[in-house]
Design brief:
about 260 residues, alpha+beta, Alpha-Beta Plaits, 6 helices, about 30% strand, globular
């Protein structure tokens, strides 16, 4: 058997019509589209791994994936080859050879997401698949204060879905910040890892607290309680974007928050 060569790729996708990144039987997934495209121009079946296994409706601006192929010595323009075989809502922006031990998921030491909230009485028809519409104004000073309480190493049991299979609910949040522009609020989170639906439950809770000055609990209270019943509802998937991941030996795999916001 010939040796396999490992590659890392970066892709962007509109998650609206995907069931998520991970392969699912009888459902459209990002993984399946990438693997089908890879097979179409290499005639080889290769498993694709990713840094962040996004759910149905969640988007990605810089999703990192890896794959291995035999004898890639022939001159392949990987980006062009992928994109000629991919649908319009998925595009590959970068491919490079990496060490054989690299794994998009397990080699990452930090992951980043951004969540978009559109504030206003009238919802946007054109942004309905890309933002969470909130009709009530948010108290931004209170939001900023609550975000500070998220940073650090905590047991986030109160912010995990009932389907979450993670053995350890303790995660380290290195960044929780926001920027507001023209009634659009972008909230960014960076952590070593996230629990299933953790960000969406955090967002739902932050919105409830920030639109209700008389809220009984703070984020810190809810974290300490480890009680899902005290946290807010799970915010919709369509406002969530995977921004990227960080690795020791690979640079420029995530989109900076400000760069993303300026592109809107």
């Amino acid at each position: 058997m010939r040796a396999l060569t490992r590659f890392v790729g970066i892709c962007q996708y509109d998650g609206t019509l995907f069931s998520g990144f991970q392969f699912q039987k009888n459902a459209r997934s990002v993984q399946d589209e990438l693997e089908k495209a890879l097979k179409s121009f290499t005639n080889l079946s290769s498993r694709v791994n990713c840094a962040g296994r996004t759910d149905k409706g969640v988007h990605a601006l810089s999703q990192i994936f890896d794959f291995s192929v035999e004898d890639p010595s022939r001159n392949i323009n990987w980006i062009a080859a992928f994109n000629s075989s991919l649908p319009d809502d998925l595009v590959v922006t970068h491919v490079e050879e990496v060490d054989s031990n690299f794994h998009a998921r397990f080699s990452a030491y930090e992951r980043s997401y951004v969540y978009l909230i559109k504030v206003g009485e009238i919802r946007s028809t054109f942004l309905r698949n890309y933002v969470y519409h909130v009709s009530k104004p948010l108290d931004l000073k209170l939001l900023s204060k609550e975000l500070v309480g998220i940073i650090g190493t905590h047991d986030f049991s109160a912010f995990r879905s009932s389907q979450c299979s993670a053995k350890d609910p303790v995660k380290t949040i290195s960044k929780a910040s926001f920027e507001e522009r023209d009634n659009l609020i972008c909230i960014e989170f960076s952590a070593n890892a996230f629990l299933h639906n953790m960000i969406r439950i955090l967002i739902g809770t932050l919105v409830e607290i920030s639109t209700n000055a008389d809220s009984e609990y703070t984020i810190t209270d809810i974290i300490s309680s480890k009680d899902r019943a005290l946290a807010g509802k799970t915010a919709p998937a369509n406002g969530l974007y995977f921004l990227g991941a960080k690795y020791k030996d690979i640079q420029n795999t995530n989109i900076h928050f400000k760069k993303f916001f300026d592109s809107l």
